[in-house]
Amino acid sequence: MSEIKERIVGALSIMSDTDAESVWAFIRDGYVVKTKTWSDIEEVEPDAEEMEIIKKYNANPTAFAPAVSHEDLRKQIGE
Fold this sequence. Notes:
By secondary structure, this protein is mostly helical. The chain contains four helices and no strands. The chain is elongated and about 65 Å long. The model has no long low-confidence stretch (mean pLDDT about 90).
């Protein structure tokens, strides 16, 4: 946790409930969390190594399948 967040938590821990409610109202009413969407993700072109992997996958997708299923692996390790 950053220093400023630790300071805020420390201040909240010694506040009265009434003061903490006022701080919460300030945060709730004044801070809007933007919902992330796919358009927020920067799209980058794959590099040469990634392109090679993509080509190999497209040529033979089953070669990239796990040799053991998740369920079988859990059985093998005793979970």
